[in-house]
């Protein structure tokens, strides 16, 4: 596409006609993850400067608009603007990637990494319980409010933030 040569051109910089033409020529896949799990992963990767998860969450809440690692998915991926062909949920990667590869005409079994979705789900459930218990009631409420559009747009029914 003519303006794709420019570095980091955002989708919003294209006019509606250009966007429609460009997006119509791609298979669009969106990978989504529970926002609370994203926060845990970001914390564990050392992206926060604070030693406790509660302090890290406060840092996120105080500077929420500044860092892409914890911005709501709805603001990053524009699911209302882009009609995605597939939405793949973290925690169901093996099942969903197999289906996606099959639909693309690729040999699904040979290309997939060894994924153990049930172990990943159990681990994040345990981590979520531990880390959620560190947060104040106000932090829990603020996180739920901050990620409200992600929680409404995607089926994160078991998210600790959904309550």
UniProtKB/TrEMBL annotation:
GO terms for molecular function: sulfotransferase activity. Pfam families: Sulfotransfer_2. Its EC number is 2.8.2.-. Keywords: Carbohydrate metabolism, Glycoprotein, Golgi apparatus, Membrane, Signal-anchor, Transferase, Transmembrane, Transmembrane helix. Signal peptide: none annotated. It is found in: Golgi apparatus membrane. The keyword Secreted does not apply. It is a single-pass type II membrane protein. InterPro entries: Carb_sulfotrans_8-10, Sulfotransferase. GO terms for biological process: carbohydrate biosynthetic process; dermatan sulfate proteoglycan metabolic process. The keyword Transferase applies. GO terms for cellular component: Golgi membrane. PANTHER family: CARBOHYDRATE SULFOTRANSFERASE (PTHR12137). Belongs to the sulfotransferase 2 family. This is Carbohydrate sulfotransferase. The gene is Chst8_0.
């Amino acid at each position: 596409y003519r303006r794709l040569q420019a570095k980091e051109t955002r989708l919003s910089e294209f006019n509606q006609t250009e966007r429609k033409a460009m997006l119509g020529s791609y298979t669009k896949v969106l990978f989504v993850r529970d926002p609370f799990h994203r926060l845990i992963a970001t914390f564990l990767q050392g992206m926060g400067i604070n030693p406790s998860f509660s302090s890290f969450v406060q840092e996120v809440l105080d500077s929420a608009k500044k860092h892409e690692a914890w911005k709501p998915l709805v603001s990053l991926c524009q699911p209302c603007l882009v009609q995605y062909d597939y939405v793949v949920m973290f925690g169901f990667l093996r099942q969903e990637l197999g289906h996606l590869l099959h639909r693309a005409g690729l040999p699904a079994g040979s290309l997939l990494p060894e994924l153990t979705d049930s172990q990943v789900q159990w681990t994040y459930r345990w981590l979520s319980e531990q880390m959620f218990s560190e947060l104040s009631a106000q932090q829990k409420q603020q996180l739920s409010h901050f990620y409200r559009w992600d929680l409404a747009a995607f089926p994160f029914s078991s998210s600790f933030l959904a309550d």
